[in-house]
Every structure is written in C-alpha cells, then in structure tokens.
Amino acid sequence: MFLNIPVSIIVPEILKHLEDDAFEDWLTADLFANASRLPLKDLCANGGHPSAVGSVDVWMVEITQRRGKLWSGKFQVEFTEEQSGGSKAMAWTEHRSGELLFALDTESAEIVFNTDVG
Fold it and tell me: Could you tell me the residue ranges of all domains in the chain?
C-alpha cells in the first residue's frame, strides 16, 4: 500500500497581500523563497532527486479558483535533477520542469501541494 502524504508549507506573510492586484506576484516570490521546501522529488524520473546545489525557478503562478477560504491554483517550476548510476563517477544532472497544483488556506496561510504529479 502506497501512502500519499501531502506536502505543505505555511507562508503567513502572504495573508497581508490577499486583496492586492499583484497577489500572484507576491505568491510567486513566496514560493521562490520556499523553493527548497517544494515537492520537487515528485517531478523527478527514475529515482532521481532535486540537486542541492542547483537553482529552482518558479513562474506562471495562477489562482484558478477562489472558493471561500480555500483557493486553488498552479505554477510552473524548473530545477536541476541529480541521477546516480550506482557510483559518484556515473552521476549526472538534468534540467527538469513541470507543473505543481496547490491549495491555499487563506486563514491559516497553509499551502498544500498536490504531489500526485503524473
């Protein structure tokens, strides 16, 4: 049995920008600032993992639905993935990109990511 445990972060500073016209820009900045906490491993292939030294880029953050206190959306992400071929000499990196879906609780500032990325 495989358990899919949601990955979440809390970004309280975003709450003061909920009514701003540039809310998605503020959210992009907060996601970028928390890039090391994003569920990037779910976008990796063949047992790879996000590189600890590579940069992460976040763009096209979009709120797709505002329903009460729970808003949902999506964004694009690009990062460096590391693969190891069984030894350090056979390790290699590759650029990886994908889309992550999320839900934002506008009361608690918790962002829960959909980690069931196909």
Answer: 8-114
